[in-house]
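Renewal narrative, Specific Aim 1. Our central claim is that a sequence can be written position by position from structural information alone. The example that follows is taken directly from our test logs and has not been curated for this report. It begins with the structure tokens describing the chain, in the order in which they were read.
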């Protein structure tokens, strides 16, 4: 899966905002590090009221003040992106063979042999589905991370086509010429099947990120529980000391009640002792509750902390693009110091080589780690040298 957020720079965010706002009928004027947006009544956006809005292109809170902020992590940018995606969530573009440079496989790039010529023969059209997804990983209590990932699969085989996603992302930047799009020809079931397959693979690819955030949440939960245990241990010590002090006071009042001669003084002393006994009973109940909870590992607090630091992973498809590409055969002429040959492999424009190639000697699959070598006109691998 392609990390669609890696290329989201401040300059591109600003360019995207300008182009999108102008596309929906607003006028945008640059003023230093600000965008002054004039929103007419006829503007096709729900993000701003009619009138003039100032957007500060910065992340420094002191610079932003009460204005809207625009930077890659800002809510303004997310809102613009969401609205743009909602306006055109699905479409179709075509990638002609001439639009895509030849993508050599790793087993040729890493080979000692040199590619002297390539020729692509188109055979038939194929359809891919390219999806742009937002992956939100957050806890109940606080936002954690929000990233964009793009992926592509063949609409029929659901085979992953990462190069196509990269190609479309490269063509879809705010700095590129607009793509010519049309309505999709895919039916709803085909789109849903492709999106589901992409979503599953994207989640699998971001598992390291999820695991990293989960580890951080676990550490935070552990630290919170440790702090809570320390506070409860301190409270238990305080209760034990207070119970001991009250017990001593009760003992003193019992002795005093026996020593006084006045009936009124004796009754007052007994009343005070009764109040202290009630207080001691309350303290003992609290102590018992705390010691029982401590012995059980503070289950209620553990559940509360666990709920607060528990992760929620949301995978949301933002846009789906039907991408038509050409499948055919690539003829590659290669040579080294002593030998030369020509080989043919299945190839998709913008996709790359679509079938594995095996060593003609040992049958091992060629790869970047086990690249091609020539022995006469025989295609061999490095491993069986």
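The sequence written for that structure reads:
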């Amino acid at each position: 899966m392609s990390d669609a957020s890696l290329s989201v720079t401040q300059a591109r965010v600003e360019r995207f905002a300008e182009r999108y706002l102008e596309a929906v009928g607003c006028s945008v004027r640059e003023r230093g590090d600000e965008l002054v947006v004039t929103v007419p009544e006829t503007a096709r956006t729900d993000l701003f009221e009619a009138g003039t809005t100032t957007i500060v292109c910065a992340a420094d809170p002191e610079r932003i003040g009460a204005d809207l902020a625009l930077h890659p992590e800002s809510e303004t940018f997310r809102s613009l992106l969401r609205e743009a995606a909602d306006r055109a969530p699905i479409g179709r573009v075509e990638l002609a063979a001439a639009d895509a440079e030849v993508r050599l496989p790793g087993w040729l790039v890493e080979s000692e042999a040199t590619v002297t010529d390539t020729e692509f023969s188109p055979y038939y059209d194929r359809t891919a589905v390219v999806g742009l997804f937002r992956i939100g990983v957050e806890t109940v209590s606080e936002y954690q991370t929000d990233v964009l990932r793009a992926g592509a699969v063949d609409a029929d085989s659901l085979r992953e086509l990462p190069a196509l996603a990269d190609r479309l992302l490269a063509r879809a930047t705010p700095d590129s010429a607009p793509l010519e799009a049309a309505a999709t020809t895919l039916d709803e079931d085909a789109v849903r099947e492709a999106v589901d397959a992409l979503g599953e693979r994207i989640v699998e690819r971001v598992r390291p990120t999820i695991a990293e955030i989960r580890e951080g949440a676990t550490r935070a939960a552990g630290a919170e529980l440790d702090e809570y245990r320390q506070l409860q241990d301190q409270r238990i010590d305080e209760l034990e000391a207070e119970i001991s002090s009250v017990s001593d006071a009760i003992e003193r009042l019992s002795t005093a009640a026996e020593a006084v001669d006045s009936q009124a003084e004796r009754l007052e002393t007994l009343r005070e002792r009764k109040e202290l006994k009630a207080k001691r009973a309350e303290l003992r109940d609290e102590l018992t509750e705390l010691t029982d909870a401590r012995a059980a590992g503070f289950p209620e607090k553990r559940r509360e902390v666990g709920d607060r630091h528990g992760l929620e992973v949301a995978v949301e498809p933002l846009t789906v693009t039907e991408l038509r590409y050409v499948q055919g055969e690539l003829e590659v002429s290669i040579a080294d110091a002593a030998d030369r040959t020509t080989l043919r492999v299945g190839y998709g424009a913008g996709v790359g080589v679509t079938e594995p190639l095996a060593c003609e000697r040992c049958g091992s699959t060629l790869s970047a780690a086990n690249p091609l070598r020539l022995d006469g006109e025989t295609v061999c691998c490095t491993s069986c040298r």
